[in-house]
Specification:
By secondary structure, the protein is of the alpha/beta class. It is built from 2 helices and 5 strands, in the order αβαββββ. A 5-stranded mixed beta sheet has the order 2-3-4-1-5, with helices on one face. Helix 1 packs across helix 2. The longest helix is centred in the middle third of the chain and has 17 residues. It starts with a helix and ends in a 6-residue tail after the last strand.
Length: 100
């Protein structure tokens, strides 16, 4: 569910009117741990790799993010306040944390 929401927010919304020149919007998914983050990111990559409408949007990718041609970066991070990025994040989805 988190992957589908992130893909929709990144691919089908236009944030450019709200961005300064050179700025990118960040659609961020915050996962409870690294394993969860890896699974969600693989689902997000699969959407962009296997849906013909989405594939041309991908300009570059790293281990935890995709840069899209519409000035949006899709990013998956673990819940760590030191790593959370500041800047325009029009969509942030925090996943339910596994706990004991």
């Amino acid at each position: 569910m988190a992957a589908a929401l992130a893909v929709y927010a990144a691919a089908f919304r236009d944030y450019r009117p709200f961005l300064k020149p050179g700025e990118r919007a960040v659609v961020m998914v915050i996962a409870g741990d690294r394993e969860q983050a890896g699974v969600v990111f693989k689902y997000i990559e699969a959407f962009f790799d296997h849906v013909p409408l989405l594939a041309p949007l991908v300009q570059s990718r790293t281990k935890e993010s995709l840069d899209l041609s519409n000035q949006v970066t899709v990013q998956v991070q673990t819940c760590n306040f030191r790593r959370l990025r500041e800047g325009p994040s029009p969509f942030v989805f925090a996943m339910k944390f596994r706990g004991g």
